[in-house]
Amino acid sequence: MRHAIGSKDIFAANRAAGRVALSVAAQSGRSRRRRVYEDGPLRVRFPHGAGTQLEAVIVNTAGGIAGGDRHVIDITVGENAAVAVTTAAAEKVYRTLGPAAEIGVTLAADRGARVVWLPQETILFDRAHLARRIEVALAADASLLMAEAVVYGRAAMGETVVQGAFADRWRVRRDGRLIFAEATKIDGAVAARLAQPAAGGGANAFATVLAVPGDAMMVERVRAQGFAGEVGASAWNGIAAARLCAKDGATLRADLAAVIAAFGGVLPRLWLN
Q1: Residue 265 near residue 248, CB atoms below 8 Å
Q2: Is residue 133 a contact partner of residue 163, using CB atoms and an 8 Å limit?
Q3: What are phi and psi for residue 44, nearest 5 degrees?
Q4: Which element (helix H / strand E) includes 195?
Q5: Which of 28, 57, 205, 237 would give a disulfide with 151, using CB separation of 3.0 to 4.6 Å?
Q6: Distance CA 80, CA 85 (A)
Q7: Nearest-angstrom CA–CA distance, 139 and 112
Q8: How far apart are CA 267 and CA 258, in angstroms?
Q9: What CA–CA distance (Å, rounded) separates 136 from 177?
Q10: Which residues contact 222 (CB under 8 A, 6 or more apart)?
Q11: How far is residue 132's CA from residue 70's CA, in Å, rounded to a whole number?
Q12: What does the alpha-carbon distance between residue 86 and residue 36 come to, in Å, rounded to a whole number?
């Protein structure tokens, strides 16, 4: 008996499953790629060779993410090695007619290692559904600088995310102990919710920057800046964090660049293109 191919089968067959797994090791004072695995539309490139800190660029050859797509990124940084990871472009998440798109990011840093996670913005289109999980495991003396920005529609294109869903879950552990955890969820009438004073206050672009270790000096450098959007920063228990919101992606990016610099980071070259 032949199986009738339905719309669900066709939808599943056209979904993208991408994965990048990268391990970095220190050799003779330089950080080098030790193992690279690529699958599906995801690729990783190293445009500036191997130095004290390895630079890695994640590329999505599909040009965006649609409903049902699943992307997994695993970065492991060995003892005394360092890597800075960004993306070749802002990641676009398009509308879905079915299941949510999923992104899973795992970052692990061994003793004396440093991981910098600075992807370009995630842009959500109207009726996009995205579920993202970020897991970070740090050795006791490893360090982390990470930033994630989400833009609800491109203001320059007149786009508005009227309906949609975004769920975001972060967990950061140091020496096996949970030190930072948060979950964000917005769904349904997104534009109406973001317009509420207790939610976005009319902002459509948001970002979080996290530094481990972090201290009050980082916070003071942030507070000394002038921002076009709204920025708040705090430090506690060896962690520093900043929250940003702005009316559009361009404003957010300018503010985000200033916060990253205040936290001691260097803006990826691709952000300047």
Answers
A1: no
A2: no
A3: -130, 135
A4: helix 190-195
A5: 205
A6: 17
A7: 8
A8: 9
A9: 11
A10: 231, 233, 242, 258, 259, 262, 263
A11: 10
A12: 16
* Sign, Cα dihedral of 266, 267, 270, 273: negative
Closest-CA residue to 114 (of 76, 160, 155): 76
Distance of CA 236 to CAs 77, 155, 220, 233, Å? 25, 35, 13, 11
Are residues 184 and 157 in contact, defined by beta-carbon separation less than 8 angstroms?
no
Instruction: Tell me the pLDDT tens digit for each residue of 29-87.
Output: 899 999 999 999 999 999 976 678 999 999 999 989 999 999 999 999 999 999 999 99
Could you give the maximum distance between any two Cα atoms of the chain, in Å? Answer: 72
Task: Give Cβ neighbours of residue 247 (< 8 Å, ≥ 6 apart).
Answer: 155, 202, 203, 204, 205, 229
Tokens of 205: 């672009």
- Residue 117: CB atoms within 10 A of its CB come to 20
Q: How far is CA 126 from the centre of its chain?
A: 20
pLDDT tens digit sequence for 173-231: 999 999 999 999 999 999 999 999 888 888 999 999 999 999 999 999 999 999 999 99
